[in-house]
Design brief:
The longest helix has 30 residues. Strands 2-6-7-10-1-11-12-13-14 form a nine-stranded mixed β-sheet. The protein has a three-stranded mixed β-sheet with strand order 3-16-17. Strands 5-4-15 form a three-stranded antiparallel β-sheet, with no helix packed on it. A hairpin with a 2-residue loop joins strand 6 and strand 7. Helix 8 crosses helix 9, helix 9 packs across helix 10 and helix 9 packs across helix 11. It has 16 helices and 17 strands. With 512 residues, the protein is α+β, with helices and mostly antiparallel strands. The protein binds adenosine-5'-diphosphate, magnesium ion (MG) and zinc ion. The site of adenosine-5'-diphosphate has 15 residues, from strand 1, strand 10 and strand 11.
């Protein structure tokens, strides 16, 4: 068996207000989208490389990369600088890209993916290039993207499968979103992933192949799986792997050879003379070392950046599991988007109040919560992930434009829990809540959803379980044939309207 070895090189556009070395607007969110941006709108003599212009460092971008470094357990450099990477291509007006060569902003980090450590070699900062579009009569160039701050992250060759690479990229996206430094949407080109893959039967790594232009998490996973199979076939047939760059054909779902590497390109790196050296100091006072664009040196206080670090997705997932009791998969979904995570947490604190105030339960707010938490959390997860997400998507809404307040959603869950609304009508009710933004009890009255003349399956089943404790005990002791007896009761109570397979599922779930 060949063992796959995978390392990633990931570029992420930072969502700073302005570009990396000039004051042009950074509107990266509009670049890959349908909304579009007039070509060459955000340009100036600096990002168009007019002779005699001077770049000025964007301190917000530098701080963003430091935040990423801290979140990914990296060592932050004490001193860092920019370098010129020379190459000629029409999307690069200067004829060189300002990047970082031997003194990146941070190095030697790691994160855990499903309990396994993936090493992060380095994270540095550079500038994005313009965009070329090839048309019939030639090539058009748009410099709106030229000079947008671009963070580059390189991993150690620690990844072993397509799914692991995908999960790593998803975790990075969640972290960058939580840090509010990037949207990192792969489809929009805000996050670009190059994968390096080799396979080997021994400890010594095989020849690696690099795959480019992957623009979704899914294609990262599939391209890797494809390459592992392709390389295995090549080696099995006695041939050698050629070190090359390959592209990903989304339609055929396969990689194809783009160019064969002839040694490494000589970029003739040298230190960028027009940008001051960066110094990262712990706990300096701002008045003593002002962050200056014009001085010869720029001082940035890491301690201060540390105080602005939010709770990271991994910690949040952990909290969602241990504190609230969401299962692993749901915790992951609910914390992947910071707005959804906040929404969920607000819903839970509102539900605690609703449960106490609805008058159906005795005891303190904390007692009532502890007693009912398990079932409530299941309801919250189900209705948020399976239902509300779908309704919002269908109506082209997002968590940002979601009309259902946490308080209203909490009341809605409480109403389902206390059987004020049938399972069947709950879906209609939630949809009305999205359309009107109103509160559920009012909608229940006005839309007459309360007087549900059909039956409530869950209520019937709960009653059957409560009325037949002995039969339930026998069932739990292994007499599973009794399920038929229960289903008979359901059909009788619902006057034949219940869906037997749904009823069966619900019984099994409740009695397990
Ligand atoms: P290059 O000089 O070709 O760019 P680097 O040493 O900079 O190569 O590594 C680029 C990426 O490739 C890193 O993510 C690294 O972990 C990964 N990598 C290095 N060697 C291998 C290998 N044999 N197989 C798979 N990935 C590798
Ligand atoms: Mg490299
Ligand atoms: Zn500019």
């Amino acid at each position: 068996m060949y063992k796959p070895t995978i390392g990633l090189e990931i570029h992420v556009e930072l969502k700073t207000k302005t570009k990396m070395f000039c004051n042009c607007l950074n509107e990266n969110e509009k670049i890959g989208s349908d909304a579009g941006l007039t070509p060459n709108k955000n340009v100036c003599p600096i990002c168009l490389a007019h002779p005699g212009t001077m770049p000025m460092s964007n301190v917000e971008a530098i701080k963003s990369v430091i935040k990423a470094g801290l979140a990914l357990n990296c060592q932050i450099a004490e001193k860092s600088k920019f370098d010129r990477k020379q190459y000629f291509y029409p999307d690069l007006p200067k004829g060189y890209q300002i990047s970082q060569y031997d003194e990146p902003l941070s190095q030697n980090g790691h994160i855990e993916i499903a309990g396994k450590k993936i090493g992060i070699t380095r994270i540095h900062l550079e500038e994005d290039t313009g965009k070329l579009s090839h048309i019939k009569d030639g090539t058009l160039v748009d410099y709106n993207r030229a000079g947008i701050p671009l963070m580059e992250l390189v991993t150690e060759p620690d990844i072993e499968s397509g799914i692991e690479a995908k999960e790593f990229c998803q975790e990075l996206q969640a972290i960058f979103r939580e840090l509010k430094i990037a949207d990192a949407n792969m489809e929009k080109g805000q996050m670009r992933c190059e994968v390096n893959i080799s396979i080997s039967k021994t400890e010594k790594f095989g020849t690696k192949v690099e795959v480019k232009n992957l623009n979704s998490f899914r294609s990262v996973e599939r391209a890797i799986d494809y390459e592992i199979k392709r390389q295995t076939k090549v080696l099995e047939s006695g041939e050698k792997i050629i070190q090359e760059t390959r592209g990903w054909n989304e339609i055929k779902q396969e990689t194809y050879s783009q160019r064969i590497k002839e040694g490494s390109a000589d970029y003739r790196y040298f230190p960028e003379p027009d940008i001051p050296t960066l110094h990262f100091v712990q706990g300096i006072s701002k008045s003593k070392f002002p962050i200056s664009k014009n001085n010869e040196q720029i001082f940035i206080d890491i301690e201060k950046i540390k105080t602005t670090m939010p709770e990271l997705p991994a910690e949040k997932r952990n909290l969602f599991q241990t504190e609230y009791g969401f299962n692993v998969a749901d915790s992951k979904i609910l914390t992947a988007e910071p707005l959804l995570a906040d929404y969920t947490e607000n819903i839970i604190s509102e539900i605690k109040i609703w449960l106490k105030d609805c008058g159906e339960f005795e005891g303190s707010e904390a007692d009532i919560w502890l007693k009912n938490k398990e079932k409530i959390i299941k309801l919250v997860a189900g209705w948020l992930i399976n239902k509300l997400t779908g309704i919002l998507m269908a109506k082209k809404l997002t968590w940002e434009t979601n009309p259902v307040t946490a308080e209203n959603f909490a009341e809605f869950i409480t109403m389902i829990f206390t059987h004020q609304v049938s399972t069947k009508n709950s879906g209609i009710l939630l949809e009305s809540m999205v359309i009107t933004g109103g509160d559920p009890s009012q909608i229940l009255e006005t839309e007459n959803l309360k007087n549900d003349d059909s039956f409530d399956l869950e209520k019937i089943i709960n009653e059957i379980i409560n009325k037949n404790p002995e039969t339930v005990a026998q069932y739990k002791n292994g007499k599973t044939a009794l399920l038929k007896f229960f289903l008979g009761l359901v059909m009788k109570e619902s006057k034949g309207q219940a869906d037997p397979s749904e009823a069966e599922k619900m019984f099994i779930q409740k009695l397990s």
